[in-house]
TrEMBL record:
MF-aspect GO terms: metal ion binding
Cofactor(s), names only, from the UniProt record: Fe cation
Name of the protein described by the UniProt record: RmlC-like cupin
Source species: Mollisia scopiformis
Cofactor binding note from Swiss-Prot or TrEMBL: Binds 1 Fe cation per subunit.
Pfam families found in the cross-reference section: Pirin (PF02678), Pirin_C (PF05726)
Amino acid sequence: MLDHFTIKPGAGFPDHPHRGQETITYLLEGAVDHEDFAGNAGTIKAGDLQFMTAGRGIMHAEMPRQNPDDSANVGMQLWVDLPEKLKKCEPRYRDLRAKEIPSVDVDDGKVHIKVISGQSHGVDSVKELAYTPVWIMDIEIKPGGKVVQNLPEGWNAFAYTLSGSTAFGVGKDKTIVGQYHNVVFEQKGDEVVAEVEEEAKENEHFTLCHVAPLFLYWPSHFSVTCKLQYGNWECGF
């Protein structure tokens, strides 16, 4: 499940539990403070990510910083189910700073790709970010640009458009998709093709995610076979 969130001043996500899953948070605007009942704490800012493995269970809070202009904090969070053998692993965190993310430019500089997790055009991401096999790319295409992104065959893949209009696919299967839409691709292919028309008025920006099909998306904090018990733990916010 992918959540494109906007946290306005005064709102946030106070103490709440997770178990049996991993969450990947990508902050686009603002800053968010994190703290949990095990004493871990930190802040991610625009362009940063946090990879959290809930494992056997964690209680934490995610609270936005107050921006000087009172603007909202904006980001995305991907939830991925852990396999049964990892559901009781120890919780862990891995913050990935914007400056740590490798990138690559293709199509004569018309396409810029941040390789958050996985591989793109010979560039590898930082390793050991999550237990879950997942590839994540942040892609920006200028007018007239085109990208062909290879991906592991048989994986689940989808793109979420953040701005502009993008043509996905080739030939008769080409489809133009506007802002704030989710595009789910068939599993039988091994590449995603995306391009922006030459006469477009703005760049196109989208995230591309590929996840091994063993891992399922659940629309709640828990897998159906898991239960989480916790006491009166409180974080410091």
